[in-house]
Design goal:
InterPro entries (chain B): AAA+_ATPase (IPR003593), ABC_transporter-like_ATP-bd (IPR003439), P-loop_NTPase (IPR027417)
Largest sheet of chain A: none
Number of helices of chain B: 14
Family (chain B): Belongs to the ABC transporter superfamily.
Number of strands of chain B: 13
Strand content of chain B: 15-25%
Keywords (chain B): ATP-binding, Nucleotide-binding, Transport
Radius of gyration of chain A: 21 Å
Pfam family, one (chain B): ABC_tran
Distance between the termini of chain A: 31 Å
Structural class of chain A: mainly alpha
Helix content of chain A: over 70%
Distance between the termini of chain B: 24 Å
CATH architecture of the largest domain in chain B: 3-Layer(aba) Sandwich
Order of helices and strands of chain A: HHHHHHHHHHH
Number of domains of chain A: 1
Strand content of chain A: under 5%
CATH class of the largest domain in chain B: Alpha Beta
Shape of chain B: elongated
Oligomer: heterodimer
Number of helices of chain A: 11
Strand order of the largest sheet of chain B: 5-6-7-3-8-9
GO molecular function, one term (chain B): ATP hydrolysis activity
Radius of gyration of chain B: 23 Å
Order of helices and strands of chain B: EEEHEHEHHHEHEHEEHEHEEHEHHHH
Structural class of chain B: alpha/beta
Helix content of chain B: 40-55%
């Protein structure tokens, strides 16, 4: 059956492309206030908490903490606040109903999820890296002459700083995928905090060695191993590289599952 | 052109849309009617590929929605009132959608102007009234200058001026040759706007007809006559433009002439009238009667006479298509 001609003369150059979806998601991320608030809060918390802990450090506790854990102590807060941004990127669209507009514009759906992942990564990684590179030396200025003195150029330090930024990014992407899976902001934040903080505590009560080994590859534990300086992480934990791989798989795998379900589920 | 064929949606064992087939043609406003919960929104979501049908297919311009390389230029849709992040401004919301297709900023400004939102374009949607939200949804629907427009309850929450705006907008979109599908649960509103009607109830197609035919069928202008000499009066009244039907012994339903004429005719021939009542069933009433019981009315609405009336206003190609559709649904 022929479709009668309509009076619409839209240029045929209009088409959905991955680059355009990426640009749209970039615009979406930065056009809501919550992004600015979350990122600013995370950066301030990372630097501020690090300074606070460093300024109050009492010499002689090197066997319990390492310079990264002191200088980047704020990571513990950013580990929650940055993933919240990830959850807002995906689950937030379901809460507001925006997802219907989004998926009507991009009915192939999966490019939206990859674009969101790309945009979040391109935002969180540079930001956390810059924050660490500013915060760590500032914190070190309080630690000169203590057993926690370790310049960025010392062996392993820069790697641990990079690892911190990478693991915060991976955790944010993991949370973004949880948001896409659970489609509820509250549900996804609950699942993230529960899965990251509480679940490992519960599982670790199972008195089996294999459980302890597996535990080291859980997201939060892997993130800890990535950013640990070798002096502290010596107790049979997986290497930073192996931990980074594990965490990357958690994030990537969850995004992949979320993508499969996004394609299948009704909106 | 938009086509649903055998569209079925089940949630568990609850059938929300049941074997629904209809077509929506360019150049007319098609009203999509049904009481709340009839399956209108679900059908629209299936047309847009947001919900996957359990069975059947939905195509727009011959292809499933998702198969279009630039869907926003093909179909513009207004679904539930708010499909917008409340923290984003109207301008930012439309820009986000425009960027996915490479639609220029000038077009964003144009649709904002078209919807009368230019002054509030830089305000966050959170502070918008229901009517402003609807207008933003319509601006989004028109963003890609689409050949087909699907609007779910567009007049919800609009003030009288807004309702008039929608009415004129829909008519002008159809006049430009676009395909326009508008859902509503208000028959009276559709009677003013739509040319064609697709009426569903409990997920089933109840009527696929023109507004004119529906009005005729609704019994507007019919007169109920009760008389002991029914046969005699019927013979006197029947003429080229007058139809007389006998529902029960002694009762006639006369269409095509007013009660004054019937009364005079009866008096002139000495026929006693027991009752002479102009039938005042409103369009709304007819709609409610139709949707009250799907099965009972399915047969009566789709009379051959009506099919002729409907197709006479349309092109030949569409006539055959609709004949096919009729056969399909009656089988």
């Amino acid at each position: 059956m022929s479709t009668p001609t309509h009076a619409v003369t839209s240029p045929r150059s209009y088409a959905v492309t991955p680059a355009r979806v990426l640009r749209s998601e970039w615009h979406k991320l930065w056009s809501v206030r919550s992004t600015w608030i979350t990122l600013l809060f995370s950066a301030v918390a990372m630097v501020g908490v690090g300074l606070l802990v460093a300024a109050n450090y009492e010499d002689g506790s090197r066997e319990f903490v390492d310079p990264i854990q002191i200088g980047l102590a704020g990571t513990q807060i950013a580990m929650i606040s940055l993933p919240v941004l990830g959850v807002l990127c995906t689950a937030g669209e379901y809460t507001s109903g925006m997802i219907r507009a989004t998926l009507t514009a991009v009915p192939r759906r999966v490019p939206v999820l990859w674009a969101k992942t790309g945009v979040l990564t391109a935002t969180v990684f540079p930001l956390t890296l810059a924050t660490c590179l500013i915060g760590y030396p500032l914190a070190q200025s309080f630690l000169t002459g203590t057993d926690q003195e370790a310049a960025l150029t010392d062996p392993g330090v820069l790697g641990a700083v990079l690892g911190t930024a990478a693991s915060l990014t991976a955790l944010s992407v993991f949370a973004l995928a949880l948001g896409a899976l659970l489609r509820s902001v509250a549900g996804a934040i609950g699942a993230y905090v529960g899965g990251i903080m509480i679940l490992p505590e519960v599982i670790s009560m199972i008195p089996v060695d294999a459980v302890d080994t597996a535990m080291e590859y859980f997201p939060a534990q892997a993130a800890g191993n990535i950013s640990a300086l070798d002096a502290v992480a010596g107790a049979g934990a997986p290497s930073p590289a192996a931990s980074l791989l594990a965490l990357g798989l958690w994030a990537f795998g969850t995004v992949a599952v979320a993508g499969l379900l996004l394609k299948r589920r009704d909106v | 052109m938009m086509r649903a064929s055998g569209l079925t949606k089940k949630y568990g064992d609850k059938t929300v849309v049941d074997d629904l087939s209809f077509e929506v043609h360019p150049g007319t406003v098609t009203g999509f009617l049904g009481p709340n919960g009839a399956g209108k929104s679900t059908t629209m979501r299936m047309l847009l590929g947001l919900d996957a049908p359990t069975r059947g297919t939905a195509t727009i311009g011959g292809r499933p929605y998702a198969a279009h390389p630039a869907p926003l230029t093909e179909v513009g849709a207004l679904l539930e009132a708010r499909s917008v992040h409340p923290g984003r401004t109207a301008h930012a919301h439309l820009t986000a959608l425009a960027l996915t297709h490479g639609i220029p900023r000038s077009r964003v400004d144009h649709v904002l102007d078209l919807a009368g939102l230019t002054e509030v374009a830089r305000r966050r949607v959170k502070g918008f009234s229901l009517g402003m939200g609807q207008r933003l949804g319509i601006a989004a629907a028109l963003l890609g200058d689409p050949a087909t427009v699907i609007l779910d309850e567009p007049v919800n929450g609009l003030d009288p001026e807004g309702v008039l705006w929608i009415r004129n907008l829909l008519k002008s979109l159809a006049a430009e040759g676009r395909t326009v599908l508008v859902s509503s649960h208000l028959m009276s509103e559709m009677a003013l706007t739509a040319d064609h009607l697709v009426i569903i109830g409990k997920g089933r197609l109840l009527a696929d007809t023109t507004v004119d035919a529906f009005v005729r069928e609704a019994g507007a202008g019919a007169v109920k006559v009760v008389t002991p000499s029914a046969a005699e009066l019927a013979a006197l009244l029947t003429g080229p433009s007058v139809t007389v039907t006998g529902d029960s012994p002694g009762t006639l339903t006369v269409r095509g002439c007013d009660s004054a004429h019937i009364g005079r005719t009866a008096a002139a021939h000495g026929i006693p009238l027991v009752e002479l009542t102009p039938h005042t069933a409103s369009l709304e009433q007819a709609f409610m009667d139709l949707t009250r019981d799907a099965v009972e009315y399915q047969a009566t609405v789709r009379t051959p006479a009506q099919a002729t009336a409907r197709t006479s206003t349309q092109t030949g190609a569409q006539t055959s298509a609709q004949a096919t559709a009729l056969e399909g649904t009656s089988a």
